Amino acid sequence: MTAHNHTPSVAFGDTSPMNGGGKNASASALPEARRDTIKPALMTTSQRFASAAGAASARQRPAPPLRGFAARRLIGVDDLSDGDIAYLLDLADHYAGYLMRAAPAPRRLAGKTQINLFFEDSTRTNMSFELAGKKLGADVIVVPVGASSVHKGESYIDTAQTLAAMGADIMIVRAKQPGLHHDLDARLNCVILNAGDGAREHPTQALLDAATIRAQFGTLNGRVIAICGDIRHSRVAGSDARLFKRLGAEVRFVGPRHLMPEDDQFTDISRAHSLAEGLDGADIVMGLRMQFERMGEDGRDAARGYFEEFGLTHETLKLARPDARIMHPGPMNRGVEIDGALADDPDRSLILRQVFYGVPIRMACLDALLTRGE
User: Fold this and answer.
1) How does residue 166 score in pLDDT terms, banded at 50, 70 and 90?
2) How far is CA 285 from CA 44, 168, 211, 314, in A?
């Protein structure tokens, strides 16, 4: 992919309500009176962000690719052309400006029906898709799968077909079954968007991670990104690696051998089995949680001694570049793969910025897939 030396219109300062509490301070360690000030301080910080985001919200929305937005579904990163990726990132910056100013975004999806169908647990992804659709004016239905007919024996395919027959324009699906998203795409007369596919793909997480890095560094081109932890069982690692490389980054997998992918997978990604080797020269260090639910009965044995050897802390981050930043797709296992003090450090952590970008990147995806950018 042709690298774009793009400096995003949305810029975040390294400001935080916890500044002044020391580099290793965390919210849980703050005195009660100090914690009481966090919410109003966050509001003040958002107002400061708003001035930086003014240019994004004021500028015209980006033009779609010359040949139009090509993707007709989003199941994996490879569904997107290079032009699609550039457009989605620019459109996310555009929508981020509205969010930071607390200004209403254009209701481009008014009259459209969005169904969130999550067969696996989710907080960030499900809620951010719901917010994204509502901010664009869509009618959003979040299916309570725990109380659905799935528990009466109905198949996932039948559940999805039933919902699609009610007039869905787009269906956001999370499931661990291999091939389900492709089956739904072949059967249903609506757009299928993958919100997490077992240990295989999570394309919108990759896009929001790229948007976060771009907001911090201006571009991914030439950046060194170390993805650390349970690579084998992570859907984020695969999608991130594919997208980051297309955007010109050098990507490394870092972790113990038993948590690495099979040797015939991701052969174009270098692997390191120590933090000293893997973090050397890194601009971004991406921590991944232990996917215990995908490891079987002995899964938690994988965590024994992991933090001592591969845990991300202020001390181990010194192995990376002096201005390196930490990221994590969440949910975090504090004290397993990452130290809470580092995760909460506003000078080094981009984790909450990732959460923020979950909404505008998903607004961009919904808009592009349903309107083709027209």
Assistant:
1) very high
2) 28, 39, 15, 12
Q: What tokens does 115 get? A: 């169904």
pLDDT tens-place string over residues 235-252: 999 999 999 999 999 999
- Strands (DSSP E) contained in the chain are 113-118, 139-142, 170-175, 191-197, 224-228, 250-254, 270-272, 284-287, 325-327
- Report the candidate in 329, 348, 325 with the shortest Cα–Cα distance to residue 337: 329
Cβ partners under 8 Å of residue 11, min gap 6: 52, 53, 215
249 vs 292: CA distance, rounded Å: 29
Of the two residues 196 and 53, the one the predictor is more confident about is: 196
Residues 285, 197, 272: CA angle, nearest 5 degrees: 30
pTM value? 0.85
DSSP 180-198: HHHHHHHH-SSEEEEEEET
Instruction: Give the residue among 253, 244, 240 at the shortest CA–CA distance from 279.
Output: 253
d(CA 294, CA 271) in angstroms, rounded, equals 22
Taking only the tens place, the pLDDT of each residue in 267-320 is 999 999 999 999 999 999 999 988 755 556 665 666 678 899 999 999 999 999
3-state class of 34 per DSSP?
A: helix
Domains of the chain: 105-198 (3.40.50.1370), 203-355 (3.40.50.1370)
